[in-house]
Structure formats: C-alpha cells, structure tokens
Amino acid sequence: MTNTIDELNKILEEADCLVDEATINATLDNIAAQITADLSDKLPLVLCVMNGGLIPTAALIERLKFPLEVDYIHATRYGMETEGSSLNWLSYPQTSLKDRHVLVIDDIFDQGHTLQAIIGWLEQQETRSVRTATIINKLHDRKTDMTPDYVGTDVADRFLFGYGMDYKGYFRNLKGIYAIKGS
Ligand SMILES: O=P(O)(O)OC[C@H]1O[C@H](OP(=O)(O)OP(=O)(O)O)[C@H](O)[C@@H]1O
Ligand code: HPA
Fold it and tell me: Which of 43, 82, 171, 181 has the most CB atoms lying inside 10 A of its own CB?
C-alpha cells in the first residue's frame, strides 16, 4: 500500500538514528584510505550497485584522489519489501570488464547474497580482480560465506533506512542511518 506523506514523516520522527553523519564521514575516510592503498595505481573500474550504492559511491569516489572509471550494475533482491528474495538483475555495466581491477560499492552488507552473486558474475567476465566495499555491516548470523573487502560500521539487526537505503523507496537521501521503530 502507498504511504502518505504524513505516514512517512511519522516513520522518520519515530525512528532511531543509529549512525550519525559524523560517524558515516569517519567511516568513509577510513575505507577510502584502505582503497587508496590497494588501488591507487590500478586504474580501477568502480561499479555502483544501484540503487542503494548511489550515495555511498558518490561519497567514496570523491575521497579517492587517483584516476578511476565509474559504471553501475543494478541488481535488487528486496524491491519494495523488507525481506529479501531472489536476485533480480536489471542492468549490467556497459564498460568492458576484461582485465580490469573492479571495485564494487554498495550501501549495506546484510546477508551478502547480492554481493556474492555480483562477484560470481564479475568473475565470469575475466576481470583481473574484484573487491567489494559497503558502508554498513548488519550484525546477525544469517550471512553467506562472503565478506566485503572494506566494511564500515556495524549496526543492529533492524530494518534500516537512510544514506542510500530505502524504506519502501523513500529516505535514501537522509544523511544518517535510521532504524524503524520496533524493528
Ligand atoms: O546483503 P543482502 O541481504 O543481499 O542485502 C543487501 C542489498 O539489499 C539492498 O538492495 P535492494 O535489493 O533493497 O535494492 P536497492 O539497492 O534498490 O534498495 C542493498 O542496497 C544491497 O544491495
Ligand atoms: O535494512 C535494510 N534496509 C534497507 N535496505 C536493505 N537491504 C538489505 N537490508 C536492508
């Protein structure tokens, strides 16, 4: 069902801010330093995982002071839902991937199915290396057996939104990371 603006404003008012803007910025600085150490001489191709990766990718690449290219991949397993299902591939990168050092950036490492599938697909494209980065790690024991190379702040096992993550398509534009009341 579609939410009204009043309902959405109430959800935000009642939500708990779990990670503030200053903490996100410190996390981004830290991840950017690690990426710089590993990739600054590799002319990497950065792949944003749409849609959630949009804001983290923009924030991270402006901290990377070396030559890189940017493209995107669109794969989603949550859609408008709060429970993930099978991965739906909506768009593939247009840039040639062969022999490239690829850095995949997403907002959240939740169960890991999305990144695991993306890594699997990239490895079939004859890439030279594949690394993954997320700003947030959700703490629970339902993970796949992959872990991103660069992982930001740990957060509780609740339904999150903000800084790329959505609640029913909304709130990706918030500067902090919030959890729905009662989740
Ligand atoms: O680790 P996982 O359990 O696979 O979950 C993480 C993925 O889920 C979200 O995407 P979603 O499918 O909600 O699409 P979106 O990016 O458009 O919000 C998020 O942006 C990650 O890509
Ligand atoms: O907690 C979440 N919030 C929004 N999107 C998500 N995708 C995976 N987990 C989440």
Answer: 171
